Amino acid sequence: MQQRSQSPIPLKVLVGIATLLVPVLGTLCGSGSTAAAELQAGAATACITPPLGEPIVGGFHPFPAEHIHDDLHARCLVLDDGETQLAVVICDLLGIHRSVSDEARRLIASETGIPPQQVLIAATHTHSATTALGGTGDERFVPLLEELSDYQAFVARRIADGVRCAANLLRPAELAIGQVEAPEHVFNRRWFMRPGSMPENPFGSADDLVKMNPPRGSANLDRPAGPTDPTISFLAIREAEGRPLALLATYSLHYVGGVPRGHVSADYFGVVCRELERRVDREPSDPPFVAMLANGTSGDINNINFREPAPRRQPYEQMRLVAEDVAVKLAKTAGGLTYSRDWPLAARYQELRVAARHPTEREASWAEESLPAADTPDAAKTLSEIYAERVQALAHQPEMLDVPLQVLAIGSARIGTMPCEIFSEIGLDFRRRGGGQPSFLVSLAHGYLGYLPTPRQHDLGGYETWPGTNRLDRDASDRMLDALVEMASTLVPAADASSTSDKAP
Length: 505
Ligand SMILES: [Zn+2]
Prior knowledge:
Radius of gyration: 22 Å
Helix content: 25-40%
Number of helices: 12
Shape: globular
Strand content: 15-25%
Number of strands: 24
Bound molecules: zinc ion
Largest sheet: 8 strands, mixed
């Protein structure tokens, strides 16, 4: 296996700050602290709401933002065990370009001393945000941007400010890890259909064995093509004297939607946070409690119960229903946990060289014939024309891509990340193989490299596996998961921490 560890910031910057960071750099290669240290934590939010007029990019045809329904945030948590600091930042964005994460982590390292390898930055995948990916077309897939857009530079700056504010607020803290089940909101969105009912895909073929988002309540539905991951894993953090400080959760639900066209909204991720803040922090404290909801492994999961016809819902109604239930479950479970101050911290980061996907000869010649006329406006392109352009863009990908992978160890817990929309079965695998109590994945961290199906799901076809939606080799998920499992296994297990905390597996 060809792997390499690489810092995303220039070596001279690292060397420049190294003199300030001797104790921290001791953990760069992932050896956790063994001393029973006393935890400190701080949390803060930074507003990343874009100006109106920026393009909203959740669908095939971007359109300008016309209304701010609710502000977008970078929600930031800093943990410090006395030797090692970790930062986690969850951003209300569809995705975040690798270069934005690099720039934010460079700023964080120079301003707070937390090394880039110890900072996790991920997007929630709200579909009602403007783009921090880079343009609205395939510019987003340039591996490293030469220059950030104004909005990308703003997001990087705000992330770094949020982490700095969280670090300013560090104070003695206690932490507990919990898990709670919420199976009723997650549905696998890829379905086997009754014979003869598979519609043509944009490539003019009915070869797909599964259909993404089939018609609701259709008699042609056979069965879902994969599992769901119903488990919400979370860290709950409070001040040493008991006031709630932060809660960082992950749930494997793509997004909920129901947002009017042109609205900017953090989707249900924002509603869960506001609901938790209302429920957990009843008498708003200073500094305020910060809730954070990351996207788990939801590449093939959404909130649509395909067996039943769609109920009529007002805008934002469905996301409120889901979010209130998730917030209630989290608040209730967090209240019953046993908290401890002994949580050794560690991190590992590497860039795994993975083969990029390139079009087959057949795909390339289909694309050649199916391109739109040069003067076709974006909004008028058909799905086939959009995919013809995407297939052509795939041909220009480098042979190999450097895929950022990261594992954070927080006591007994292992949090792994990939820069993709990860299929739920990969998340379930990491729960089993990650070696933590618990182990769980966060999607869309440190970049965006498209959907990540397993090889088995590739063979079934469907939207997430189409060339252009998917940008990595067929076996990429196996290689990336193996690498994360190996990284997690090199982090020192924290038996003490797991024995002093009351887990609800
Ligand atoms: Zn998506």
